[in-house]
Amino acid sequence: MKTLHTEVAVIGAGTAGMTGYRAAKAGGKRTLLIESNVYGTTCARVGCMPSKLLISAADAAHMLQAASGFGVHAGEVHIDGKAVMARVRSERDRFVGFVVESVEGYPAEDKVHGHARFLSPTQLQIDDHTLVQAERFVIATGSTPIVPDEWRAAGPRVITSDEVFYWDDLPQSVAVAGTGVIGLELGQALHRLGVRVTIFGRGGSVAQLSDPDVLDVARSAMQDELDVRFKTKVVKVEQHGEGLLVTSENTNGQQQTEHFDYLLSAIGRRPNVHQLGMENTGLQRDHHGIPVYDKQTMQCGDSAIFIAGDANDERPQLPEAADHGRIAGDNAARYPDVKPGLRRTPLAITFTEPQIATMGLSYNELCASYAGRFAVGKVSFENQGRSRVMLQNKGMLRVYAEHQTGRFLGAEMIGPRAENIGHLLSWAVQAGLTVDAMLDMPFYHPVVEEGVRTALRDLAHKLEHEPAQDCPCVDCTPAP
Fold first, then answer.
1. pLDDT over 60 (residue 475)
2. Which residues are NAD(+)-binding (predicted)?
3. How is domain 347-465 classified at the architecture level of CATH?
4. Which amino acids are annotated catalytic?
């Protein structure tokens, strides 16, 4: 077994790891990048990019089907599942190639392949071939989709989103467990591509939403198109021929057994920290086994170990992983002179239709930290001009501001162009704008953003004429 000495060891070569490696190198430190799997980020291989390729194909199919609402009648729609998946895989491989090419450009002596495990706060063992002695560490090991053991026992037809993007063809039917971002995005895309889809949600959650009014609109919008069964859990999965028998149970105890080709488990992801020998680091860990860390510096306690990206379970999104990695790598290089890094305003987007976006402080966070001190404005997109023109007039936007100061705090929405409106409003939060300042900005006509102005006008009225939101915060969290 050989021994390597370095100043910084980065465990994991995903988005956070690669960014952390480059930041530590830029800080002038000898840095090793350790990866146990193939190179290529979750986003490029099995996450945001291939999912958007599938969604784009689904949008094309849906536009043909929706054209009759404009008086435009297309011919018979034929979906070539093999062609759809061939494009998904081809373009996905192209995106992965860019990432792999980037890693291949790193010096060979900076890369070690194998599974890393802490032997002490300063030493790693890589498989059975290498010991790494380092002064500082960045843990960027990512996360893995959760599949309960009792489901997995039903065989290979129980899958995660990872397997979807390796399909050669579209199946006839898929059951989806989970009404989070992944479950809803993939469930709706597959439905629009002609797959029979049923989505089961243990509670009433929809993606990342927490505002009860927006949640109500979101549930209705999803159920208008999809077979979404809220407050219904999967209780049994059995192999049956080439498919599965899936038994579900609602809150009344009523059970139903149905046949599907696949069960897609989209009930969450688990940080990959449990096989790292964390018990040998001396770090304090939370009840999930994740090291306790500072969200501004990524530092674990006062140690020379930093944690970034999905591994810390804070915000499992690529932009956040990149920011985490940059902060962690920079502070690993400068340790012990650790400094807070730039944490941007939270922004999360779900690419369903209608799209879902949250930005700034969520309703739940406001209930916890601003109760009795914030106001809420809203707009429905049902009669918003441009939305009706496009036949996309479903959804609601709720906007939040601080009483007394009028400072804009955040928003939650489901509706048209949410990916664009989300950016607009998150920038306003980060810039510290007041509602009055936002209303002074230009609004063209006719655009969906006029709905934002309507919501802001309602918010300004609430700030001036009504008491602060008392926030009898209902339980907006998913059911256990």
1. no
2. 178-185, 268
3. 2-Layer Sandwich (3.30)
4. 445
